[in-house]
Amino acid sequence: MENRTSRPLNAVAHAAEHCTLDAGSIELLGGAVGEQLLVHRSPRRRALYTIVQDIPAQAPEVQVGRAGATRLQARDPRLDVLLETSFVAPDGDTSATRLTEHVLGDAGATGIAILAPHGGDIEVGTADQAHMVYEILARAGARPRAWSARGYDPAGAYGCWHITSSEICERSFPKLGSLFLGDTGRGPFAHAIAFHGHGGDAIVIGGGLPKDPGHLARKRRMQSSIRRALELVTDDVPAIEVKLDGPLSGRDARNIVNRVTVAGNGVQLEQPLAVRQDRLLQTAIAHAVGSFYAELL
């Protein structure tokens, strides 16, 4: 199972979230390269990966890299595992380890999509913020749509369920797929905002079209709106940055917040844990974002 020499599994960004799988198993599971695959090492240890390559194999075989094996706490390089491509839990599931999807709004709406791909315990507080923004815009008559995925696992939801936003496949998340136009890989929305969390200290605003003057100006206006909202509730406002490239920039055209829009002009909002755990700060940011888009739409 563990392959320490494959470059896609060890030496590229987000390699810990990658796996390879033999072509026969991909066909049998009804999956495809680029989609997600849940690997069960045991009833208590599982992890979600993106299939990045099919491999020739005489027998069914899934491979992960060194960091990918760590997510499963796999010490033996060869293990018997269970593979699953239909991993989203049904509505109402309360299992300790689960990933659920939630979608709100009119299926015909095209104004704004509000996303929280790492909700629940993956990136705490982000799904709550997406829901708050949805409610603000719905009350304003803006006809928003909102989607969140919420993951839980007593052993660590991030290690179990996190898939980077530029590799999330809407074919693996049926309710997310409802925000896209068939199999085009694109959505119909004029705007999109995605709530995220990270391990640093600053609030980072990024997203698509980093060189577009109009979109950059909107990001800077959002930066000011968030700062003003936080100044009303705390004397210790964290740094708020607009990032155009590099980690956390959200500029990748494959990022779902960019793909769900017509123009590729999504906005990605990254927040430190201290902000996401503080209900007052979390709410202030959500209200600032909601008010910002209520005026824009």
CATH architecture classification name of the largest domain: 3-Layer(aba) Sandwich
How much strand content do the residues show? Answer: 15-25%
The CATH superfamily of the largest domain appears as: Poly-gamma-glutamate hydrolase, zinc-binding motif
Q: What's the CATH class label of the largest domain?
A: Alpha Beta
Rg result: 19 Å
3D architecture notes:
- By secondary structure, this protein is of the alpha/beta class.
- It folds into two domains: 78 residues, Barwin-like endoglucanases (Beta Barrel), CATH 2.40.40; 199 residues, 3-Layer(aba) Sandwich (Aminopeptidase).
- It is 29% helix and 25% strand.
- It has ten helices and twelve strands.
- Strands 6-8-7-9-12-10-11 form a seven-stranded mixed beta sheet. Strands 4-1-3-2-5 form a five-stranded mixed beta sheet.
- A hairpin with a 2-residue loop joins β2 and β3.
- The termini are far apart.
- The mean pLDDT is 96.
Q: How do you describe this structure in short?
A:
The protein is an alpha/beta fold. The protein has ten helices and twelve strands.
